[in-house]
Amino acid sequence: MPSKLPLALITALLATVHTAHAAEQVVKIGVSGPLSGANAFAGKDNENGVRLAIEELNAQKLQVGGNTIRFELQSEDDGGDPKQGVTVAQKFADAKVKFVLGPYNSGVAIPASRVYNDNGILMSTVGTNPKITAGGYATVFRIVASDTQVGGSVANYAAKDLKIRNVGVIDDRGAFGQGIAMEFKRQAQAAGIKIAGHEYTNDKATDFAAILTSLKAKRVDAVFFGGYAPQAAPMARQMKALGLNVPLLGGDTLCSPEMAKLGGPAVGENVRCAQAGAIVARQPGGQAFIDGYKARFKRDPDVYAPSFYDQTKFIAQAMKSANSVDPAKVGAAMHTISYQGVVGTYGYDPKGNLKKTTVTVYTFKNGVLSPLASY
């Protein structure tokens, strides 16, 4: 008569056999962002957020469709340039990459989104211009607040908390800078703030003396800048040098350690910026993310590393929910389920915008971002 094996041993043996038959399936995750140029710090930060998520997911040996999923990162430099971003999108398509985190810049995301859609690639961007999700692409997701939400929060804060009545607006003529400046301007006027003047620059400029002198003559109570930290930091220094001692307002791109690094003593409580999401350190799992990021990369996370980390994890969760790595099926799942990340809760409307998102206004104290209010 055959001997009976203990139930626990039988279970273990069956699990071993099942694991042995589970094939490994490689899923490529692409990252498109500026790894060169003035915003390279942001591109690398975004890449690090994805890399950390992938390393954690691979350690979990995710099972989808009977296969063990192994994620591979492919990062490409789009230089923050629309043409280069489209080239990167085509490169990903040729390499059979089906999930892309990025682009970082709205001006890159708008034309690239069509290439991704046409090639069946799921794109997750931090580009905030409303046009990105206006194309009706089912697998395009905006993982942060839009210009409408961020610009409105800054306008609301300027009117109610700072009591601003007369503001000057500057934008860099880019898709992001122009988009957020126009939203701020529209909602500021609705809140009773007068727009004293709207000036223009570009994303390569370093001298803003003429623009700032003009706004100073109009006795503005604040300056709103639609653009990026590499321009905003010298702008803050030149405002101080000209005696234009009023708040410098802006969106999430000013909520970066790079502002304090480039602006030095000229960047302090005079800078007020709005960033999508709740205060990460105060969120469940937020401090653990910060500590893990610092341990892995020997630096603090910047603005969007947590968002890229969260979305990578959400994509993995949607794969399990759909029991598929097909981007169309994964995207459909992301429209119906939600995910609790370190920035907040992710859930998308039919256009790929977040259904609900917090926007937090920050300032700088001793070179470090300090939260002031959330909306």
From TrEMBL:
Task: Name all Leucine-binding protein domain ranges.
Answer: 27-365
Keyword Signal in annotation = yes
Family the entry assigns = Belongs to the leucine-binding protein family.
Keywords of the record, alphabetical order, are: Signal
Q: What is this protein called?
A: Branched-chain amino acid ABC transporter substrate-binding protein
- What is the organism of origin for this protein? Massilia phyllostachyos
Query: Taxonomic lineage per UniProt?
Result: Bacteria, Pseudomonadati, Pseudomonadota, Betaproteobacteria, Burkholderiales
Cleavable signal peptide: 1-22
